[in-house]
Amino acid sequence: MAEIKAFRALRYNTETAGAIETLTCPPYDIISEEQRQAYLAANANNVIRLELPRGERPYEEAGEWLRRWEESGVLRRDDKDALYIYEEEFTARGETKRVKGVICRVKLEEFSKGVVLPHEETLSKAKEDRLNLMKATACNFSQIYSLYMDETHTTRNRLDALSQDKPQVEMDDGQGVIHRLWVVTDPAAIAQVCGDFAGRKLYIADGHHRYETALNYRNWRRQQGTAAPGDDCDYVMMMLVDMENDGLVVFPTHRLLHDLPGFDCANALRQCEPYFDVVEKQDISTAEAELDRLYEQGKKAFACYCGGDTWTLLVLRDLAPVRELLPQASEALRGLDVTVLHTLVLEKLFGIDKENMAKQINLRYTRDADEAVASVRSGESQCAFLLNPTRVTEIRDVAAAGEKMPQKSTYFYPKLITGLVMNEMDGNQ
Asked: How far apart are CA 427 and CA 429, in angstroms?
């Protein structure tokens, strides 16, 4: 099953580079160009220069900056193999939460082997970008976020025991999240944690593109004759978290429809009536609370907003139509809110096919419900569907069935910070 190992991470030397708060950033795919510029203005050594390069030769320049920073001491590699215990403390839905896991190297396995399991479809454009960056830098700047099952919580208890002392790094990212890092170099402790995973599978929570890119990079290196089985590029950096960790929070990703020819919201909602209880409601600001209530009841429900002062609540009566549309799918996949929305509403009733959705021709995504509403009010979008979040157990069940959810089915919050720990794959360790 899963093979994990310690490694000598590449990390910032804050004496040379500056305060760690000014050197890290969120994942590249949620950063605007304005934010990117702001990070570099605060500190020219910010990891965004490596993780999200720009210019005429973006990938090559990222590789050049990486080498320059290593030579100048801005970045330096740890002296000993280590596991890195990482904790985030944050507020979600009015509660203070903590999620803690271990950053390590994980041996790459094809999905078909059933050791590392995906749960979402991916987009080829993002994978091409990440592969070009990896070819130029031979480095992971951010971790793939994965979950594991551990009924006795053996590993979680080990990690708690190993992180009793003051963390080597503690920082507030200015976005409401405190990040802590402990470095574990004791060989016996490392062996115990790594041994825990011998019989486990890993479920990717966030980072599908990066995992598939790591597989492609490994294969490319072998084709080039610059790597052999067992080399550094056979592994990828991951953050591993107990699937039953109380701090795990998944937010929904809402859907925005745009540029649909002849779209008529009232007519579209009438098409939903054979399958849903369709109820007009006042004041869109009440939609999320209404969805929360139905979520607790296990209902499949959506808020549809097409502008104005009212919104429409859609509550699925029966899962039978989805079963008919997806006869080969597992019950786990059929029962997802996003499956119901994509398969029954967007595809069957609205006529938006899977390829259209994959290419985002008439479909966009946002985690922010207010942003979704504003997009409709401004005329940028014709319609918004607000969703409930996917449950962690649903993610596990779909992945275990060997299936994948539609793109953007989950949004784990908070995102892992980029730049605290980096993994070089140049074969010099």
From this structure: 6
